[in-house]
Amino acid sequence: MASERVLIVGGVAAGTSAAAKAKRTNPELDITLYQREPFISYSACGLPYFIGGWVPDHNALIARTPDQFARDGITVRTEHEVLDVDAAAGRITVRDLSSGKTFHDHYDHLVLATGAGVRCPPLPGIDLKGVFRLRSMGDGLAIKQYLAERKPASAVVIGAGYIGIEMAEAFLELGIKTTVIDMLDQVLGTVDVEMAALIETAMREAGIQIHLGAKLAHLDGDAAGQVTCACSTGAELAGEIVLLATGVTPHNELARAAGVALGPREAMLIDGLGRTNVARIYGAGDCCTVNHRVLDQPVYIPLGTTANKQGRTLGAFLGGVERPFAGVVGSSVTKFGALQIASTGMSETMARRAGYAVRSQRIESTDHAGYYPNARPMHVKLVSDAASGKLLGGQIVGYEEVAKRVDILAVALATGMTVEELAWSDLTYAPPVSSVWDPVLVAAQALAKSR
Ligand SMILES: Cc1cc2nc3c(=O)[nH]c(=O)nc-3n(C[C@H](O)[C@H](O)[C@H](O)COP(=O)(O)OP(=O)(O)OC[C@H]3O[C@@H](n4cnc5c(N)ncnc54)[C@H](O)[C@@H]3O)c2cc1C
User: Fold this and answer.
1) Mean pLDDT (whole number) for 411-440
2) 327 in a domain, yes or no?
3) Which of 114, 136, 289 to mutate to test the pocket of ligand 1 (most atoms within 8 A of CB)?
């Protein structure tokens, strides 16, 4: 019997995870991966650190090459763009971008792992010289080259989400005078305003100018790449390099054409195995929704950690192992300088918007025993459901072990813990690494008491 043919579109996190896991699970599968870019299987998450110079070589971001996949029996065709899907015929149309030739390929199973692109406002000037977006390895290399050749003295970052913050730090590290603008009244809209203010203060103290409540209206530029960003507030901010870090939008064109149902933010609706509503078409990664375990509904939270899990789950399924991915609770982390900020579940703002009667508590503690050297402040905010006492979310800003503490909260959320239960959890303690009452326990006890 002929082996089943699996075609995968997109080869960064989700597509390559699916390919590798499917082949490991069922070596008989005949797998071909089509990828528009020259690069596959790399860490886009590492790009700000490559641009900032902490990671000197972009090759360090590459996990596996096409040759390594070939050795495992997986065919990878880079610089091939999939143009169309004929779901009834089980056929795709592909263009070889180096030769310009177009051809068809047939599938038994089709994985759409087409990811996402930068959500750019359709404003005059967004394609000017000196204006960049950061999504792919190619984008990262282009920015790096521009920085080397042009040596800009000033940068404007549009968008103060986690990519904007990481890139502001990268520009600063390179000695570039940096301005960040955002249309919201706070940086990092995924956390509550008082927690975001701690990051904002750190950014300002490091020398970054921040304009909040300022929507980009248009960009003007000259042939030399000097760009002026005009804002809704009337401010005009000049930069020799401008980065659009304005959020992401799923690449859903192929899915839409194939009749795949779309969900929040028009991402592909998939189940825990990666199946769509269209037979033999599957999805994984940033082009897809994911189940939110607290809200119990599909959401669009495109992150590398999820893309890898969705890809691996789908690969196993294609190989014959049915082990659904339960979903996310909305965890993320970033840093600015020495300050880390992590969150999971819902912020107070999100929880109220979702209709919960909310209780919240914010405490300030230290990351380890105050008497042990170098204890530094740690701010914890927890949010709970007033009716059930269940934890709904948490945010932590501090200098050490921030993410790992938020990870405790993520597990508490996934298991449906109440704040009372969390408050008495058996967390580790020794003076150099924690306090006898860990900041997470202090916050949970304070919140439990407020019921
Ligand atoms: C600067 C930056 C920092 C990040 N930091 C973090 C972080 O710290 N933590 C975290 O969890 N996540 C982070 N992310 C997000 C993470 O990188 C993404 O979630 C992850 O790359 C998603 O992988 P993916 O395979 O689903 O999609 P993508 O990475 O978008 O890859 C999809 C690929 O498919 C290709 N493609 C699309 N359409 C076609 C077509 N028609 N034919 C052929 N190929 C096609 C695209 O060119 C692309 O190469 C970051 C992202 C960026 C850009």
Assistant:
1) 96
2) no
3) 114
